From TrEMBL:
InterPro entries: SpoIID/LytB, SpoIID/LytB_N, Spore_II_D_firmicutes
Region (Disordered): 29-59
Alphabetical list of Pfam families matching this protein: SpoIID (PF08486)
Organism expressing this protein natively: Pseudoflavonifractor capillosus
Name of the protein described by the UniProt record: Stage II sporulation protein D
Record-annotated Sporulation stage II protein D amidase enhancer LytB N-terminal domain positions: 70-169
Entry's Gene Ontology BP terms: sporulation resulting in formation of a cellular spore
Length: 341
């Protein structure tokens, strides 16, 4: 299906979702997993028709800003291979890799349609703080060792088997954000970033104890905590017994800390995650006379598709279409618009 992009709707979508753009496709994938779990699905899935003629990914060119600052042009197929290889463990199930390929293609399509102020001469870059992760085939093969031939083929198949497919809402490519692993449920965008995005709502996610480092602990010496926290919240009163510094947290639907009173000052869970290197905002905290200890579950911002959750669903026999329509509410799967191709 070839569809002309509506410029007005594109601009509206850009303005609506601009606060999300800085997140890019940043996915915090872990090591080789053995996910399990169950999750009933009741959403209708309609697969898009295959692309007509030559593969859409092969005939679509994308400009990529490399780490050395140079800009190179390559096919969408080549770019997606490099992104999927960087963003998701190649040991994951084929349908999970396909879901990742579609999310990555959607992200790239949105960038191509809207442009990027950080690198106006390129559609995307390789900086994960701005765009998606990226790895060359040579670097990936070195990381994979003896598994390289089979992993290379798996990722090539994930890209080819979803040729040209993107995720849309209201006819426009969505901001297909994703993260590594959830603590049983994802969060809505409004809970994490303040934007009420209709397709980024909280849903159950089936991964669990099989995820590497699913539970983690960060212990911060008391004086280090005091100095670091006061740089963020100078009004906090961190005198007296440390066990009384923390008030009850305000929690999101996924169990993540939206905010918590520390020494009488409200601090967001996201700020604490950044300040102390926590893997997610799903945490509890304890303090004594020597240290502050965070007990953390999951990894990532918690919005959109959970990569380990996608893999668990794929192991249950769910297809990439089901996975994507579970994590992104009310979306459609379509071929890239003619104006992008």
């Amino acid at each position: 299906m070839r569809r002309a992009a509506a410029v007005g709707l594109g601009l509206l979508a850009l303005l609506f979702l601009l606060p999300l753009l800085f997140l890019g496709g940043k996915g915090e994938a872990g090591e080789d997993p053995q996910p399990t779990g169950t999750l009933p699905l009741d959403r209708t899935v309609v697969s898009p028709p295959p692309a007509e003629g030559t593969g859409a990914d092969e005939t679509t060119s994308i400009r990529v800003k490399l780490p050395d600052g140079t800009v190179t042009e390559m096919s969408m197929a080549d770019y997606l291979w490099r992104v999927v290889a960087a963003e998701m463990p190649a040991s994951f199930e084929p349908e999970a890799l396909k879901a990742q390929a579609v999310a990555a293609r959607t992200y790239a399509a949105a960038k191509m349609a809207s442009g990027e102020a950080n690198h106006p001469d390129a559609h995307v870059c390789t900086d994960i703080s701005c765009c998606q992760a990226y790895i060359t085939p040579q670097e990936a093969a070195s990381n994979w060792g003896e598994s390289a031939p089979s992993y290379e083929a798996k990722i090539s198949a994930a890209v080819a088997d979803t040729d040209g497919v993107i995720i849309t809402y209201g006819g426009q490519p969505i901001q297909a954000v994703f993260f590594s692993s959830a603590a049983g449920r994802t969060a809505g965008a409004v809970e994490v970033w303040g934007n009420d995005v209709p397709y980024l709502t909280g849903v159950e996610s089936p991964e669990g104890e099989e995820v590497p480092n699913y539970h983690s602990t960060v212990t911060v010496p008391l004086e280090e905590f005091r100095t670091t926290l006061l740089s963020q919240a100078p009004g906090a009163d961190l005198s007296g017994d440390p066990s009384g510094w923390f008030g009850p947290p305000v929690l999101a639907s996924n169990g993540g800390v939206v905010s918590i009173a520390v020494g009488g000052a409200e601090v967001t869970g996201a700020a604490l995650r950044d300040l102390f290197g926590l893997r997610s905002t799903v945490f509890t905290v304890q303090a004594d006379s020597t240290a502050v200890t965070f007990s953390v579950t999951g990894y990532g911002h918690g919005v959109g598709m959970s990569q380990y959750g996608a893999n668990a669903m794929a192991r249950e026999g769910k297809g990439y279409e089901e996975i994507l329509k579970w994590y992104y509410t009310g979306v459609e799967l379509e071929q890239m618009a003619e104006s992008i191709c």
